Amino acid sequence: MKNIVIIGTGNAALLHYTSYKKIQKIGNIYFVDNDISKKTFLEYPIYHSLFDVLKENKISYNNVIVDICTPQSQFLSIIEEIIQLGIKDIIVEKPFVVDENYFVEKANINIISISNYLYSKITTLAKKIIEERKLIIRYIHTNFSKNRIKDSFNGRAIREEIPSVLEIEMPHQIYLANYFLTTTENPIMNYCSFRDMKNDNGELKNHAQGTIIITKENVSILHESDLTTSTLQKRIIIHFKNNISMELRYIHYDTDFTKISDGYLSLYEKGILIEKYLFEEDDNMLYCLNDIYTYLNNGKYDRKYNIENRIIEFSKEMNLYRKYINDISRV
Predict the structure, then answer these.
(1) What is the pTM for the complete model shown?
(2) Which among 223, 220, 212, 204 is positioned nearest to 144, based on CA atoms?
């Protein structure tokens, strides 16, 4: 089984590591970070570079998977370094955004972006109900919000640049909405608004709250994310033709992965609850990384979509929203 090198030692790295340790058959795990004094993983040495890991542990380039868990501003430069070392298998945390021609000269490289909520039992059931009952979507509202003020001002996921609210929770919301619609149609922008995060320590531009309203396939989609709220939300509402609605609430976990609340999927007809499904366990990051790890070891990938095309389509949409943020900032 292939070894794993996790680049980064922050919260994303911890989440990935926790999931990898639950996989029964797995290679050795190594960590790389510029700051080798970090104490997140006390039982592991922290290496200065990927090259040091390979050299000191005598690991072959074709027997390693590199999992990038750094701030998104570092993704592309790290990937180029990985490719130059001859490594072909790369996992990237969200949001991984590239241009349309990015994969043209990378035909032999496996680059997979994390989209763990596609592996949720709640998402899977929702998709099954929509397809089996032939429900026609009219409206989607997503809201992934949490209080991130302390983490953000302490520098979480911030290195060379300050990520906007678009880069934190909204990537999940965007790929989930697209998954339910199964469309590659470019969105029509109707409304876009972002707010700065402020406290006594200063200001983080476009980092507090974001609202995006778009149209796709004649479906109205509203994405909201508030990183200053005291109300934790991971919620999707889908309204269908014939007055049917579906509500998805994903499980909430604390920073130490302790469950705060269960998840559920509810169906309504004319505002009256007609079905409800409870989810007491839904380890979607484990399901996601296990699927990817299996694929990178033997080529058997369970998902029925083209990985590169999905990244390109996601990138097009993210770049459109980034442009609107920049335009707003210049006004």
Answers:
(1) 0.93
(2) 223
